[in-house]
Specification:
Length: 456
């Protein structure tokens, strides 16, 4: 497993720097001067100074009355954008259980290099995140890593087996921000309905990824012309829409709050649109790579294009873009799944699905803005404001006095290509190598601590 590249300016001594800082003990004070503050949630778009202290934003424009100017660190940020730290709502960091692929330390370093200050982990770890003890372990490992904040999603069923309900209320009380069965199916729809009733009773946020196991068996690519020509096992759209329709029917009966983390098709988007029009408490997300790539990217049998849900048609990709622009799709996630090199060396159907996406999440979304696909406000809303609301992170996702100082400084004029700039992630399995970008993260603060500085 490789370390984070030295030129990324990441601190390699995590034990000395717990996540964020301890107010009154070791919090740094910062003055970020002249940045263009851009926060759609507050209608903020102005060039100003901003003051950080005690892990919080303590002043915008003018310094607070008790500001100790002689002890503050200064950053000249003229010509740069300062945005709320990105919240990635679906990313696997591989620890615990798959440390040969990556660890919380390596991947939280990759997160802050990509401007992500909060990472939300699904429960499919080893052991499964179905007890408070595992949730506490993850939180402690993230604190020791001292970079991004990592919050956990608890399991809906024991061992994600889909047979016995987990202690969902206890997981919520133990700090989990939502519950999910990851990509594992329920063995019985009656149990799934009971789980949604339970979640509604305790007002728990549920995340469910619709994927019918019988329709998706062995599937590794969109069931279409490209897969047929290449002889790849197809994964049809109905594998997504059939269970999604069942889920929507259960939401209408139980009132559970459900978020679908990744849509991949036009048909699924239409189901979400209809459910929202009916007033159901359902929201949806999309991965950044589904907004750019299509089944044509599997044509060369590039194993880095092997993802689940699969890359679908150009029509599907364009529909997802429209859904994001119109607000039908609420959030954009990385669906980060780092792999060791061997995991991508087999023939396409036998490789492990997933890409390393933490460091391309923000650049890919801003590239959509650059090309006029979506507006800047909608882009930042999908990466900060809506995920903060979804997971109940009231102290994140905005720039305001009193808010937690999770901030990302972006150079809007930096031209760079992925490949010439290395990845901090332990997994280099990305299909975006060689792509050019026009926005680059320069500095990231988490809870008032500078955790990333890009060295020139």
């Amino acid at each position: 497993m490789k370390d984070a590249p030295e030129n990324l300016g990441i601190d390699h001594d995590p034990v000395r720097h717990p996540e964020g800082c301890r107010p009154g003990i070791d919090c740094d004070r910062w003055v970020i001067r002249g940045a263009r503050l851009r926060d759609p949630s507050n209608g903020l778009d102005t060039s100003s100074d901003i003051y950080l202290g005690g892990g919080r934003i303590v002043g915008i424009g003018d310094a607070p009355g008790d500001w100790p100017a002689d002890t503050a660190e200064h950053v000249c940020a003229e010509g740069h954008w300062l945005i709320p730290g990105v919240i990635d709502g679906w990313a696997r960091l591989r620890e615990p259980g798959h440390e040969h692929k990556a660890t919380i330390a390596t991947e939280s370093a990759a997160a802050v290099a990509g401007g992500i200050t909060t990472v939300v982990m699904p429960p499919d770890t080893v052991p499964v995140l179905d007890t408070v003890a595992v949730a506490r372990y993850i939180k402690r490992r993230a604190q020791l890593a001292g970079r991004a904040r990592v919050v956990a999603i608890g399991a809906m069923t024991q061992q994600l087996g889909g047979e016995l309900l987990a202690e969902m209320a206890a997981l919520d009380a133990g700090g989990c921000v939502a519950i999910s069965n990851a990509h594992y199916p329920f063995q019985d729809l009656r149990l799934m309905r009971r789980a949604l009733e339970y979640a509604a009773t305790f007002d728990l946020q549920v995340l469910l990824q619709p994927l019918d196991p019988s329709l998706s068996t062995r599937g590794c690519a969109h069931d279409g012309a490209v897969a047929t020509r290449l002889g790849l096992p197809g994964l049809p759209v109905s594998a997504e829409t059939a269970p999604l329709a069942q889920l929507i029917a259960m939401i209408s009966e139980t009132g559970a709050r459900v978020h679908v983390p990744q849509l991949s098709s036009t048909a699924a988007l239409k189901l979400i649109e209809r459910a929202k029009a009916d007033g159901l408490p359902i929201t949806a997300g999309v991965s950044a790579h589904h907004l750019w790539l299509t089944e044509m990217d599997t044509d060369a049998l590039d194993p880095n294009a092997h993802v689940i849900p699969p890359l679908r048609t150009i029509r599907d990709r364009d529909a997802l873009r429209r859904g994001l622009a119109e607000g039908l799709i609420d959030t954009v996630v990385s669906d980060h799944q780092p792999h060791e090199p061997d995991a991508k060396l087999a023939p396409f159907p036998e490789t492990e699905p997933g890409i390393s996406g933490l460091e391309t999440l923000l650049p890919l979304v801003l590239k959509l803005v650059e090309e006029g696909v979506i507006g800047f406000e909608r882009a930042i809303d999908a990466l900060t404001t809506r995920p903060a609301a979804l997971f109940g992170l009231s102290d994140a996702g905005s720039i305001a006095v009193g808010q937690r100082a999770d901030l990302t400084l972006v150079d809007p004029d930096a031209m760079w290509s992925l490949g010439s700039v290395g990845l901090a992630s332990a997994g280099e399995n990305t299909p975006f190598t060689g792509w050019d970008f026009a926005h680059q993260v320069e500095t990231t603060w988490v809870n008032g601590r500078r955790v990333f500085l890009r060295e020139q």
